[in-house]
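Dear Dr. H.,

I hope your travels went smoothly. While you were away I took the liberty of generating a structure for the chain from your last submission, since the lab meeting agenda had it listed for discussion. I wanted you to have the full record in hand beforehand rather than looking at slides cold. The sequence, exactly as received, is reproduced here:
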Amino acid sequence: MTRRLVILIAALLLAAGCAPMPEGGEPAADSELGTFALIDHAVAQGRIDYSTGMLYKIYAQHDPMSLPDEFQSDLIGMVGAPLETEIERNWHRILPEHRAEISQYIGHLLDMDDSETQLDDVTPDRLDQERNRLD
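The corresponding predicted structure, in token form, is as follows:
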């Protein structure tokens, strides 16, 4: 059962363009990685920041010609809802200039502010604010 689960997870990662990294953390060849995996690798290495990475993922999904050549691949990676969910959850980590550009592609994010998207903020004060807002 465990072996089947490992095989299933590996297959899902490959299908999503998120091929696992070999030992040492370096990709075997860029052509084997999807666009999103290339972007994630660049963020992990510190070559680009998280905010730029999110902008590049939006480019990959909506405007591939705007994506720098080093991140282009035949495999894209996650699309649609998973990307939008990641952006919504991390909106507070995205630079204002990137927010404006991302909002051009995903219009419903335009009206968000920092307090609306910090889903990992479950402090008592935050929970009280949400309860009061709902009452």
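Two observations you may find useful: The chain has one domain: 2-134. Residues 2-134 form one domain.

With kind regards,
E. W.
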